[in-house]
């Protein structure tokens, strides 16, 4: 059985390796795959988006462990969830399950008897999630045995999830939902189809303003098109992102670094069609 790991640990210390060691100690034949360990630290909204975008491509019975846990050691609940498509997610109940919530059939509070100790720690990823997930993967326990059921409707949701973009003819606004720190592109909380419904067409020139609170970081005319090849190297382009949300980047450049922008609801984006 596959176990897929997602954390905000990075690979600069032994956190990920220790979780893998726990899993392999249960059964050395279990397959461990890294989704990412570069979630922006403590960013549960990014963790939630990441899970939602990757889980559909994995087969039934895959186990996901997501540990982005700024409240580790607190009263937030350690959960194991079963999705409608037969996949499992182990995660703290802190908003990391926001986007998957509507796809979850059942959730359970993981009993600490399946951990390496009998109480919480400051490393639940190693001391609880990894061991409990490995026991499930190795069929030493069933999903029902993991702990008492917890109502799915009680799962925590990130505040950002409820923020809706402003949409009208030839004008829209939203916030930077996530950023690709490797390639530098940003993704807005504006769906591609909603943007098109505001009467924007490929080839349009649009004015884009990005503000962090009241500080203007970007105010330029940008072409809206379907691929980077429609603008020259070094030029910004607005395009329909592959995850279904409007995106902005520089052709063979790094938008985030160039304009000192990041993700979050404080980064507001206003887009208007040029006459």
UniProtKB/TrEMBL annotation:
The keyword S-adenosyl-L-methionine applies. Gene3D superfamilies: Bacterial fluorinating enzyme like, S-adenosyl-l-methionine hydroxide adenosyltransferase, N-terminal. Keywords: S-adenosyl-L-methionine. Residues 3-147 form the S-adenosyl-l-methionine hydroxide adenosyltransferase N-terminal domain. Pfam families: SAM_HAT_C, SAM_HAT_N. Residues 182-266 form the S-adenosyl-l-methionine hydroxide adenosyltransferase C-terminal domain. Belongs to the SAM hydrolase / SAM-dependent halogenase family. This is S-adenosyl-l-methionine hydroxide adenosyltransferase. It comes from Eggerthia catenaformis OT 569 = DSM 20559.
């Amino acid at each position: 059985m596959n176990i897929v790991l997602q954390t905000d640990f990075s690979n600069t210390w032994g956190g990920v390796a220790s979780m893998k060691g726990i899993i392999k100690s249960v059964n050395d034949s279990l397959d461990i795959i890294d989704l990412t360990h570069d979630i922006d630290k403590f960013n549960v909204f990014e963790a939630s988006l990441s899970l939602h975008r990757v889980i559909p491509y994995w087969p039934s019975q895959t186990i996901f462990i997501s540990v982005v846990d700024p409240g580790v050691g607190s009263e937030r609940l350690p959960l194991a969830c079963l999705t409608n498509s037969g996949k499992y997610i182990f995660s703290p109940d802190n908003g990391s399950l926001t986007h998957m919530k509507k796809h979850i059939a059942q959730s359970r509070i993981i009993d600490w008897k399946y951990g390496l100790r009998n109480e919480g720690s400051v490393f639940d990823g190693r001391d609880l999630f990894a061991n409990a997930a490995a026991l499930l993967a190795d069929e030493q326990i069933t999903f029902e045995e993991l702990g008492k059921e917890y109502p799915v409707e009680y799962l925590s949701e990130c505040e950002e999830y409820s923020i809706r973009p402003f949409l009208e003819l030839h004008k829209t606004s939203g916030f930077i939902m996530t950023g690709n720190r490797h390639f530098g592109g940003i993704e807005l909380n504006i769906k591609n189809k909603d943007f098109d419904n505001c009467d924007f067409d490929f080839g349009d020139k649009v004015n884009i303003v990005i503000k962090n609170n009241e500080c203007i970081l970007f105010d330029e005319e940008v072409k809206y098109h379907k691929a980077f090849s429609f603008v020259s190297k070094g030029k910004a382009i607005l395009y329909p992102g592959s995850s279904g949300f409007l995106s902005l980047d520089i052709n063979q450049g790094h938008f985030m670094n160039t304009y000192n922008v990041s993700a979050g609801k404080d980064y507001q984006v206003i887009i208007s069609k040029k006459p």
